[in-house]
Specification:
0% strand, rod-shaped, mainly alpha
Amino acid sequence: MSNNITKFLNSRVIELSSQKIELGIVDDLSLDADSIDAGVKRSIGDYLDLKRQLDKVKSEVSTYKSRISDAEKKLKEIQSTTKILGIDEPPKVSSARKTLQDATKVYEKLTKDLNTI
């Protein structure tokens, strides 16, 4: 009889141990799911912040096209005037021309890069 009781108790211990192991896996799964959920929500927030910043940059960059065009018109006007008057271009004009050329190259590259995003 004691042998039957021992067998019965041993089977219950094994059964309880397997349930304990299963509960441990469920707890691990629950922790993983919570961690993944928190990470996804954080990533969504980061993405929205990045999108707002990107939209701001795109908007700002779009204004440079007309500003470059306006500056080029001023440069042509100065060149025409100095030619008519037969005078040399002021040194600031040469410097501004170079700066404008460099800025235009950067603008074109930036616009191209932004269009790929």
